[in-house]
Design a protein that fits this description.
The complex is a heterodimer of chains A (112) and B (112). Chain A is mostly beta strands. Chain A is 0% helix and 57% strand. In chain A, the strands form two sheets. In chain A, strands 2, 4, 5, 6, 9, 10 and 11 form a seven-stranded mixed sheet that branches. Chain A has a four-stranded antiparallel sheet with strand order 1-3-8-7, with no helix packed on it. In chain B, strand 5 and strand 6 form a beta hairpin.
């Protein structure tokens, strides 16, 4: 069966520090991968999605970037965090022809 | 723009009763997918039910069913025999292609 792992679960970082959140998927190959951000009490905002290694599409221009160095690995990064980067970050995957997205457990990021 | 609107920020239901959560969406596409996701306090996003736009029959999953009105671009979720474990944020989502658009969510409270 397929599983998605996301870490860390919680992160507290000072303003101006770098960020690296990692997401990996097991039990499937060539998945579509997604990064979402959820602000407190709000819905999900799509940040990035990837259909293959090295292929990243950005939905919202911002202080964040994403990379896909391996087929089942998706990384969300920032060189310098801003206060506004605080939020709940969710990674998700879907099959090539499937339309359901499956989510990781999320990372709660607090930028202080 | 393709948007998803959930007009009920909060809803409450008595245990064992039935509740309906509303969702409307805006699209110019004819083929797409609609979803309801549940987010309990753990923040894990859990798929509740999905509907393919080309199917006229409303989807049903145990106590959960939808009322899909394609012409009206409406996709409501009905929860029958509500249980305490149904308490969560519920998100309606629309997927025309690779990415998914979410509504702002409805917080459902279940009263014992």
């Amino acid at each position: 069966s397929q599983t998605i792992h996301q870490w860390p679960a919680t992160l507290v970082q000072p303003v101006g520090s770098p960020l690296s959140l990692e997401c990996t998927v097991e039990g499937t190959s060539n998945p579509n991968l997604y990064w979402y951000r959820q602000a407190a009490g709000r819905g999900l905002q799509l940040l990035f999605y990837s259909v293959g290694i090295g292929q990243i599409s950005s939905e919202v221009p911002q202080n964040l970037s994403a990379s896909r160095p391996q087929d089942r690995q998706f990384i969300l990064s920032s060189k310098k965090l801003l206060l506004s980067d605080s939020g709940f970050y969710l990674c998700a995957w879907s099959g090539r022809r499937a339309h359901i997205q499956y989510f990781g457990a999320g990372t709660r990021l607090s930028v202080l | 723009a393709q948007t998803v609107t959930q007009s009920q920020p909060e809803m409450s239901v008595q245990e064992a009763e039935t509740v309906t959560l509303s969702c409307t969406y805006d699209t110019s596409e004819s083929d797409y997918y609609l979803f309801w996701y549940k987010q309990p306090p753990s923040r894990q996003m859990i798929l509740v039910i999905r509907q393919e736009a080309y199917k006229q029959q409303n989807a049903t999953e145990n106590r959960f069913s939808v009322n899909f009105q394609k012409a009206a671009k409406s996709f409501s979720l009905k929860i029958s025999d509500s249980q305490l474990g149904d308490a969560a944020m519920y998100f309606c989502a629309y997927r025309p292609g690779r990415d998914m658009r979410f509504g702002a969510g409805t917080r459902l409270t279940v009263k014992p």
